[in-house]
Input
Amino acid sequence: MMKAEIRNDWTLHEVKEIYNSPVMELIFRGATMHKKYQATGEVQVCTLLSVKTGGCPEDCSYCPQAARYHTGVDAHKLMGYEEVIGKALDAKNGGSTRFCMGAAWRNVRDNSDFDKVIDMVKGVNSLGLEVCCTLGMLSEDQAKKLKEAGLYAYNHNLDTSDEYYTDIISTRTYDDRLKTLDNVEKAGLSVCCGGIIGMGESDEDRIKLLYTLATRATHPESVPVNALVAVKGTPLEGREKVKVWEMVRMIATARILMPKAMVRLSAGRNEMSYEQQALCFLAGANSIFTGEKLLTTPNPDFDADKEMFELLGLKPRESFKVEKEENVTV
Ligand code: SAM
Ligand code: DTB
Ligand code: SF4
Output
């Protein structure tokens, strides 16, 4: 009997075998799954905005926004409503369908800043954009409030394996992270959860991260794969640049394990040629961040991405596509 392809019972051994297969074979398999479960040639275009930058109390070794590292990122208080809506409109006019607001917070607190974020979510939602937030840890009640305000997805990355996590962050645990993901799910929000490669982790750590994501009761709706942006002043400054083959391996494995997820080629694109990005799309990536900045670091500019889309024959995916498909009655 044919094995089902949407599975939550992957074994670590199976994930390892897929991840370690010869890279051409892996790309072919990722591309095959992509063609079967996704509209090839369609790429989800998302834009990030850091609504609260820097001054974060956490010690994530990769992060330029941690207050304890001297990275030259200025700390700002929460942006105002009008400015955020203006940026969201710019993103929409630039062809983006998902707008993700990030805050350099350890966790959400029930204060006036949260009320302001709730208003921002309402405002961005009313523009017809899929709204996403990444605000740190969240209670179930807070997740529900965001959902009621019109939030579509919540980004909360596991970043790496459970074992390697303690080498990267000491101010919170992997279980804290998992708890927030559960709260997000309970509120009926889409989960966006992925990781970073290039932090000194082993292949085993990468495999374990993918295994953890793919064996959740429900696969994340989107899986960002970030290449470390090694920022000066962070403990990970000077790390060697991630090779395209490592990105391809992560992306193709994610596509094979979680065929229906949006696999996002996230941080690191600024350092990649069109050819390298094309390989990632072929392997199964179907989402990117556009706009000249990620949260604090540079991203390819609008014209470069436009040129790449034209060259590769890619077109932007429409917003709320899954829901539209679910609502179609034949
Ligand atoms: N403070 C919230 C949190 O940590 O969940 C939200 C913002 S945080 C900057 C969002 C994600 O960005 C992190 O989980 C991490 O995966 C990613 N990130 C941060 N700095 C990065 C870097 N230098 N390179 C690649 N990804 C990075
Ligand atoms: C994700 O996985 N990558 C984005 C988004 N989710 C929030 C953030 C990347 C941040 C890269 C470093 C910076 O620009 O500060
Ligand atoms: Fe703070 Fe998030 Fe950066 Fe960690 S990744 S230091 S929690 S902003």
Remarks:
- The CA atoms of residues 131 and 152 lie 5 Å apart.
